[in-house]
Write a structure and sequence with these properties.
Layout: E1 5-10, E2 13-18, H1 29-44, E3 50-55, E4 59-61, H2 66-70, H3 78-95, E5 100-104, E6 107-109, H4 111-118, E7 121-125, E8 129-131, H5 145-153, H6 155-164, E9 167-169, H7 170-175, E10 181-183, H8 188-200, H9 204-217, H10 222-236, H11 240-251
Parallel strand pairs: 2-3, 3-5, 4-6, 5-7, 6-8, 7-10
Antiparallel strand pairs: 1-2, 8-9
Helix pairs in contact: 1-3, 5-6, 9-10
Length: 260
């Protein structure tokens, strides 16, 4: 496994940690490709029922490692960076039919901010900030920032943040609907652990279907969305977890979901 990415699997939870703290976990090619590979492994590993994506050190991710794009011997070019690094990361995060928690432990800037926002449930502690830093060096947002941000916080606010590159604290990010929750710094790790454990013990198949429905709602019209809801609801009703959930409700006990 790459040293730039750490993976631990425990209690049905895969914790993926970006591990280049000396450069604030900024991405180079090796790290981007390694993250894709690990996400693929988590998707197919039946022992994994929830995924946590976080960073090591003071930052979650500062985006692209600028050393890579300014060194003629290293620079893969923006076309390759986008098509082979960031776009595949975003599509994997959204397509994996398991819940992904963005555990934002420090600053999330540029592509790092948008990778965070692509996660299913985003939790940050009170000292974290989010920055659409692209315009500050003459670039435009990528990594689906122009897709998710306006849908999360509205067109006007998103456009202003993209143009101005304002730093947004986690508390403000929660208030504007950019993230799920801002928590006190001293409660951050415990909050992530409890949330991940809860998700890992929920009906994984149904959670994957919910994720698919919300993905499709971004582009579907009403009739198409209703049809997809019907299709997936019928499939969910045939699952073992549905049978267990109903039985537990009737018997007034906690359900023991198996994820199928």
């Amino acid at each position: 496994m790459s040293k730039s990415i750490q993976l631990t699997i425990e209690n049905k939870i895969a914790t993926i940690t970006l591990n280049r703290p000396e450069v604030f976990n900024s991405f180079n090619r090796e790290m981007a490709l390694s993250l894709q590979s690990i996400l693929d492994d988590c998707e197919t590993n039946s022992e994994v029922r929830a995924i946590v994506l976080t960073g090591n050190g003071k930052a979650f991710c500062a985006g692209q490692d600028l050393k890579e794009v300014t060194d003629p011997d290293l620079n893969p070019g923006f076309k390759k960076i986008l098509e082979e690094h960031y776009n595949p990361i975003i599509t994997r995060i959204r397509s994996i039919k398991k819940p992904i928690i963005g555990a934002i432990n420090g600053v999330a800037a540029g592509a790092g901010a948008n990778i965070a926002l692509a996660c299913d449930i985003v939790v940050a502690h009170e000292k974290v900030s989010f920055i659409q830093a692209f315009s500050l060096i003459g670039l435009v947002p990528d990594s689906a920032g122009t897709f998710f941000l306006p849908r999360l916080i509205g067109f006007q606010k998103a456009l202003a943040l993209a143009m101005l590159g304002d730093k947004i604290g986690a508390e403000e990010a929660e208030k504007m609907g950019m993230i799920y929750k801002c928590v006190p710094t001293e409660e951050f790790e415990e909050t992530i652990d409890k949330l991940a454990l809860k998700l890992a013990n929920m009906p994984t198949k149904a959670l994957g279907m919910i994720k698919e429905l919300f993905n499709k709602s971004m582009t579907n019209d009403l009739e198409s969305q209703l049809a997809l809801e019907s299709k997936l609801q019928i499939e969910a009703a045939q699952s073992e977890d549905y049978k267990e959930g109903v039985a537990a409700f009737i018997e007034k006990r906690q359900p023991n979901f198996k994820g199928n």
